[in-house]
């Protein structure tokens, strides 16, 4: 899995609600629009760090298994994290 290298940054221009997201070497990553543009842009910019943190936690806890007893309606956070990591990788 390969993403645009960081750090990712947000650029804003006066007179517009559009937020532009750029990666390392000012490579365009995406843009957000509308009333939630700024919050969405922050989430996008944080995604590489969130993914790295999730992977580190998942790999650490995977060795010991999920320590939480759970019901079928309430999956272990470890399962949820594994699904999120797979989704981030396109799976």
Question: Which descriptors apply to this entry?
Answer:
3 strands, alpha+beta, 91 residues, single chain
In order across it, which strands form the biggest sheet? 1-2-3
Quote the beta fraction.
5-15%
Number of domains: 1
Mean pLDDT: 81
Major sheet attributes: 3 strands, antiparallel
Q: Topology of this protein?
A:
Layout: E1 9-12, E2 19-22, E3 28-32, H1 37-62, H2 77-88
Antiparallel strand pairs: 1-2, 2-3
Helix pairs in contact: 1-2
Task: Explain this structure.
- The protein has helices at 37-62, 77-88, and strands spanning 9-12, 19-22, 28-32.
- With 91 residues, the chain is an alpha+beta fold.
- The chain has one domain (9-88).
- Strands 1-2-3 form a three-stranded antiparallel beta sheet, with helices on one face.
- β2 (19-22) and β3 form a beta hairpin.
- The longest helix has 26 residues, at 37-62.
- The mean pLDDT is 81.
Gist of the model:
The chain is built from 2 helices and 3 strands; from the N terminus they run βββαα.
